[in-house]
Amino acid sequence: MTLCLSSGLRVGAACLIAAAWQLGAGPAAAQQPPPPAAPAPAEAPASTAMTVPSMAGPLVANPNPYKIEIAPFNPIYVTGAVSALGMFQTAPIPGDHGSNGDLPNGLVALQTTEGLVQFFTMVGVYSFPALGAPYIHVDRTTGGTFGPVPQGYVKLAPNDAFSIQVGKLPTLIGAEYGFTFQNMNIERGLLWNQEPIVSRGVQANYTMGPLALSVLFRQLQLADRLRRLDHQQREYPDHRRRRQFRPHRQERDFLQAFQL
User: Fold this and answer.
1) Which of 197, 71, 47, 67 is closest to 128 using CA atoms?
2) What is the pLDDT of residues 3-28, one digit of tens each?
3) Bond into 72 cis (ω within 30)
4) 234: which strand partners?
5) Rounded CA separation 216/198 (Å)
6) How many whole angstroms separate alpha carbon 70 and alpha carbon 45?
7) Predicted model pTM
8) Domain boundaries in the chain?
9) b/e burial code for range 207-236 (CB count within 10 A of at least 16 → b)
10) What is the pLDDT of residues 48-68, one digit of tens each?
């Protein structure tokens, strides 16, 4: 009985010590400060991707384009596109080849996006592979269409809602753009040939919430150029003189490529 009593006392003493430990540790633990909160992740830098030239994918604009800062002027952003093209076909249309290799895009764009007076210019070489038309190489396309500066304009933007652009402007019509790097399908569709992909004129833009309006007044100089004909005279064996009108060679190429 003595042994049982002694064991019971030891057990009771152990329970009292454990209870006292819990009571003593509770307030001490409550007084400890909470662990410091993890620092918030740093915010990603705001994207300065250019909205011009527009692109329909799969390419996207560079979110951090190269820029040139010359005080006191606004930053000048520099972007561009360089691509190679290889084509193979089993049934070329008359005037085309079974295979072609070329540089459809070798373009550099300079632009400003801040201030009252802004500008955009694109310089380089290009070609226009078009569905249902023979392919014309970059040198003949650049020289026979819009030249080494296919697009360029000055923009007056007194506020964020209204602006006026003057120069060689990209098209407002259609779902496909002028250059291959801007489109999902590099040969585009049949209706692309009907778009005025570059217009020389004046364009006014106004935005109000979800509404965006643009009005373009363009010069028809390019169309007049395409209609220009070279006058030639030929001498026939019967000495009768006849007149014949032929399109200029570059214009024939342009007409053939764009199905005009």
Assistant:
1) 197
2) 444 444 454 444 444 444 444 444 44
3) yes
4) 242
5) 12
6) 22
7) 0.67
8) 66-220+233-258
9) eeeeeeeeebebeeebeeebeeeeeeeeee
10) 788 899 888 788 888 899 999
